[in-house]
Amino acid sequence: MRRLRLALSKGRILAETGPLLARVGAAPREDPARSRRLILPTARRDLELVLVRAADVPTYVAHGAAELGVAGRDVLAEHGGAGLYQPVDLGIARCRMMVAVRRGFDYAAAVRQGARLRVATKYVQSAREHFSAKGVHVDLIRLYGSMELAPLLGLADAIVDLVSTGRTLAANDLVPVEEVMPVSARLVVNQAALKTRRAALQPLVEAFARAAATS
Ligand code: PRT
Ligand code: MG
Question: Is the Cβ atom of 40 under 6 angstroms away from ligand 1?
């Protein structure tokens, strides 16, 4: 049988998963930040890493092209999670998904008045659920990045974006007004693979859970 594959994205997910990989004995055998290879062997002969875009991790794992993956709750919420187990909250790449508006915009009044709010975001599913649970009518405008620009240019009244230090919002004259959800990265597993390759996968999932708990 082929090696197990773990899909993850370069950048902060890979950086913060690195120590966990080392703890489960699966440190990459070449430096992923420097290598141009997209499939990397690890110190474990039964596991290789597959480097994909953050938003593509659930897709690779749900289709079984990788048995395992590491993805943020934000990304999983947009994907929907069908075909995936999410057995371990790794507690890494933490941030908060927030509603933010231009400084001076009276968000509470806008919500109270019940007028339609124009909301720009990359996280349309999460935003839709959030505002619908509050009974706020919104027009969602889908963007792929640089959401901070939308209120400044009059494209939207509000944005839904990830906030960590808050510096990006502040630098663009925006203020967070409401939390949509706390975000951290999860270990995800293909549901079918957990049955067909349980003997190999279960101990690995448990090792990640222990590594995350002791970090
Ligand atoms: O960059 P790329 O287009 O390839 O994909 P990506 O942006 O989804 O990947 P990456 O590596 O930037 O983020 C991967 C995951 O990290 C996300 O899916 C989140 O689960 C998690 N994460 C944690 C974050 C942040 N913190 C974060 N602060 N992802 C993005 N940000 C961005 C945020 O969107 C905003 O632009 O950082 C900016 C805000 O940071 P502060 O510190 O100024 O508040
Ligand atoms: Mg990014």
Answer: no
